[in-house]
Design brief:
225 residues; alpha/beta; seven-stranded mixed beta sheet; globular
Length: 225
């Protein structure tokens, strides 16, 4: 978790993100972070070198909706979640805005069935609309500032195929009126409700509490198209 990283790394992330926001390029800090890590995953705050535990927990209780369902992993980072979905039978497309991250994935998993791509969430291929049985969004929305949050959510919702599932993992805040300090910038219930405004149905929500001194509320939410 970000809170468990060394203070120096936390400050580096905040500095990169702040600079990117000031330059009106809110996703522009990911490539410098991955490039600066120089192949050391410990310098990528969210890298676990294994699938996210909330995804693993979800997979234990969900069967494939059909044979060879299509899955999309948003902001795939170093690829562990994408590989796990492929392992259980999904045909996976995974993208990240960072070319360094995608090259890192391809180096880690040279024989992977996952289709790794460099892509911008806010400028996706139009052919991806209504194409995926599972869309997995893990903590990318919260890494982007509030002023583009509706734009980000509007980009994600149309990706689901009919009867598809959107799985969202995010930090949560109870107070919508007070802007959170970040990154990451936790999501509020009002912001999460925008998925429903776009035609999705929330079908399940699970809360996780993390941290010792400071308790952080995390959510894993399922939406259906």
């Amino acid at each position: 978790m970000f809170e468990q990283q060394p203070q120096e790394l936390q400050q580096k992330v905040k500095s990169l993100a702040t600079e990117a926001v000031q330059q009106e390029n809110p996703a522009g800090w990911f490539e410098p972070l991955y490039k600066g890590a120089k192949g050391d995953s410990q310098l990528v705050p969210w890298a676990k070198d294994k699938a996210h535990p909330y995804l693993e927990d979800w997979l234990q209780n969900h069967q494939l909706p059909k044979e060879k369902p299509a899955a999309l992993v948003i902001g795939c980072g170093l690829g562990d979640d994408a590989e796990r979905l492929a392992d259980v039978g999904y045909q996976v497309t995974a993208f990240d805005i960072s070319a360094t991250a995608i090259a890192w994935c391809q180096q880690r998993f040279p024989n992977s069935s996952v289709k790794y791509l460099v892509a911008d969430l806010l400028a996706l291929d139009a052919s991806w609309s209504n194409s995926f049985d599972l869309v997995y969004e893990c903590r990318n929305i919260q890494a982007l500032p509030l002023k583009i949050r509706s734009q980000v959510i509007n980009a994600i919702a149309p990706l689901l195929a009919p009867e598809g599932t959107l799985l969202v993992v995010t930090r949560h805040r109870d107070d919508h009126n007070t802007p959170p300090e970040g990154p990451p910038w936790a999501l509020s219930d009002l912001e999460l409700s925008w998925f429903q405004d776009l035609g999705l149905r929330e079908t399940n929500r699970k809360t996780f509490l993390e941290g010792d001194r400071k308790i952080i509320k995390q959510l894993r939410i399922e939406y259906s198209s």
